[in-house]
UniProtKB/TrEMBL annotation:
Pathway recorded for this protein: Amino-acid biosynthesis; L-leucine biosynthesis; L-leucine from 3-methyl-2-oxobutanoate: step 1/4
Domain named Pyruvate carboxyltransferase: residues: 26-300
Subunit structure, interactors included: Homodimer.
GO biological process, one term: L-leucine biosynthetic process
Methyltransferase recorded as keyword: no
Keywords: Acyltransferase, Amino-acid biosynthesis, Branched-chain amino acid biosynthesis, Cytoplasm, Leucine biosynthesis, Magnesium, Metal-binding, Transferase
Cofactor dependency: Mg(2+)
Designated name of the protein: 2-isopropylmalate synthase
Organism listed in the record: Chlorobium phaeovibrioides
CC terms in the record's Gene Ontology section: cytoplasm
Entry's localization field: Cytoplasm
Gene name of the record: leuA
Family: Belongs to the alpha-IPM synthase/homocitrate synthase family. LeuA type 2 subfamily.
């Protein structure tokens, strides 16, 4: 076995997060146009970024990281276009990422000049590994980079005279950083910014590389929230990557543990295994009765724009959004769905209670049409359901097993899925005309 490092457990007495409930949605920040974009084989053009930005606004994001304007001419041009063509609604704040380096910070402020509301998001890596191997700098030197960068941001904000500029700091690779040191750097940044309840710093604690279980990350967030010098002067933000496949769980548990804000991307786009998937997390909240504030009522449209702009696919089994997630292939599932749909509303207190369908597909703009497909795995309930739904034919119970057997045998022989039309033909041929 090769050894991999996980971060040590935090000794935290009387942790509260396992008993907490998510009562309200966090502040969401989309990083589709930055983290998502930088991870694309072909990054978005300015036009594609504009289309994606409009989509994100229509979904309801109020904070949108629009790029890394000091990194390329396209990135800079896009931010300028948003500002100059007044494409940013009054209630939306754009966010720009910058490293903690003087010329990059200055260029980022140039990019947002004239924007009514903007967040300057500055980061530097604080992990043991990066300090030792990449930067070869001591803890003090790394902290000084963060503090000097923050001072410059504060100065440029003052010079701009814009009250609408806010500040976010990320101790990048937080998951590989000693917790007390991450707190020490964040405290120094808060001081340098002059953080207060009226002028809070967004402290974004990224799971830059997902290295441990979601519960261990949640412990770190609870520890951080408890030990920060002035909780009211900081907005605790989470930016979870999906290296272990658990970014959504990480963000959900972090929210239980006290985080205020969540960064993520549609369908989990982002570096390597992606960022926390906004669609899944928001709809998870929705199914628990929490209004996410995001509108995913037309997922097919959102998916189409996403595909067009990013040239990425959405996995057919992607939670809530995949092509196959409202489809049942097995007979027993089809039978249960068919019965559930008929009985829907009569059981319990009006809750959605159709077996095997965790949500009403209609709530996300998907139709019932695709729910039952008939192939060699289908059973009598599904076959009867299709005939009734598409042709209004109610086949008697005694006939169902024989007919289903015919359908299954044909599907097995051909190895194909059978369309409702084919099933209807088979029914007419075998069970009506010949008898
Ligand atoms: O994953 C990460 O740490 C980042 C930072 C720049 C916030 O994307
Ligand atoms: Zn990231």
């Amino acid at each position: 076995f090769r050894k991999y490092s996980a971060y040590p457990a935090v000794p935290i007495e009387g942790r509260t997060w396992p008993d907490n409930r998510i009562e309200a949605a966090p502040v969401w920040c989309s990083v589709d146009l930055r983290d998502g974009n930088q991870a694309l084989p072909v990054p978005m053009s300015v036009e594609e970024k504009v289309a994606m930005f409009k989509l994100l606004v229509s979904v309801g994001f109020k904070e949108i990281e629009v790029g890394f304007p000091s990194a390329s001419a396209t990135e800079f041009a896009f931010v300028r276009r948003l500002v100059e063509e007044q494409l940013i609604p009054d209630d939306v704040t754009i966010q720009v990422l910058t490293q903690a380096r003087e010329h990059l910070i200055r260029r980022s402020f140039e990019a947002i000049s004239g924007a009514a509301n903007a967040i300057v998001h500055m980061y530097n890596s604080t992990s043991t590994l990066q300090r030792d191997v990449v930067f070869r700098k001591s803890r003090e030197e790394i902290k000084a980079i963060a503090v000097e960068g923050t001072h410059l941001c504060r100065q440029l904000k003052d010079e701009s005279g814009s009250a609408g500029i806010r500040f976010e700091y990320s101790p990048e690779s937080f998951t590989g950083t000693e917790l007390d040191y991450a707190l020490e750097v964040c405290h120094a940044v808060m001081e340098a910014w002059g953080a207060s309840a009226d002028n809070p710093v967004i402290l974004n604690l990224p799971s830059t590389v997902e290295m441990s279980l979601p519960n261990m990350y949640a412990d770190r967030i609870e520890w951080f929230c408890r030990n920060i010098m002035d909780r009211g002067a900081a907005i605790i933000s989470v930016h979870a990557h999906n290296d272990r496949g658990t970014a959504v769980a990480t963000a959900e548990l972090a929210l239980l543990a006290g985080a205020d804000r969540i960064e993520g991307a549609l369908f989990g786009n982002g570096e390597r295994c992606g960022n926390m998937d906004m669609v899944t997390m928001a709809l998870n909240l929705f199914t628990q009765g929490v209004d996410s504030g995001l509108d995913f009522s037309d997922l097919p449209y959102i998916r189409e724009v996403y595909r067009r702009c990013t040239r990425m696919d959405v996995h057919p089994r992607h939670p809530y959004a995949g092509d196959l997630v409202y489809t049942a292939f097995s007979g027993s599932h089809q039978d249960a769905i068919s019965k559930g749909m008929k009985a829907h509303g009569s059981h319990g207190d009006g809750l959605w209670d159709v077996p095997y369908l965790p949500i009403d597909p209609g709530d996300v703009g998907c139709s019932y049409e695709a729910i039952v497909r008939i192939n060699s795995q289908s059973g009598k309930g599904g076959v009867a359901f299709v005939l009734e739904k598409d042709y209004g034919i109610q086949i008697p119970k005694w006939m169902q097993p024989d007919f289903a057997w015919e359908v299954q045998a044909l599907a097995d022989r051909t190895g194909e899925e059978l369309s409702p039309q084919r099933i209807h033909e088979l029914f007419l041929d075998g069970f009506v005309r010949l008898r």
